[in-house]
Amino acid sequence: MSITNRLCELVRTLSAARRFFDLGCGTGANVRYLSPLIAGAQEWVLVDSDEQHLRCAHELVASCRRVGVTFSMRCLDLYRGVEEVLFEAGAVVSASALLDLVSADWLARLLQRCCASEAIVLFALSYDGRIDFEPRDPDDEAIRALVNRHQTIDKGFGAALGPAAATFACRRLEALQYQVLAARSDWRLDRSHARIQESLLRGWAEAAIEIAPAEKERCERWLSTRLGYLDRGESAVRVGHQDVIGWPSAPRGAVR
User: Fold this and answer.
1) Which of 60, 96, 111, 161 could cross-link 30 (Cys pair, CB 3.0–4.6 Å)?
2) Whole-prediction pTM value?
């Protein structure tokens, strides 16, 4: 069973509140994907620290509006103010491409609060450290290692979990007596995703140089080689991600 199908099943059987929180919502992509798949009434609270993102999300989620489904926006510093978001019993707490940016302490506190509310949690697209390139280059592994080191520097929440985020979340949820399901959700980019590939390649080279300035020449050579593959339509990239869903082991009155 897919992560999304499992979420829909859990919402039908466990979630009485029908209230959904999307943390670090950005422009609302996670909500726009999930909302049409979930039956019944939904009250979404989209939380982000960027007012411009929230304005954009407000416009884009219009396509998801239907009877019984509402959306509200909340601008909030997730690092300092996430405790201000109150999760009522049986809520669903979601986030996409967020966990690898936060610290172990921040995530542990969030999961503890979710557990106290018996919330269902869904964390999508956590980067797990895997990057595979085609064609291969001798410097691919070195660049990947530098990128993964960069992923663990402070992104505004303290030292970031980076590639360890999904594993940490799973273990912490299990320690809180949650049922947990994890699955890969890799990005697979081919020649039709040339612009996205270019943006990623340049960003990875920049991150690698930032973390290891002495390797600048090597990183620039690697970038030039990879952009050459891209220009010739030969480049493909797979970026490893994990989706994690967790739910209370013994929710009130529910049958697993």
Assistant:
1) 96
2) 0.91
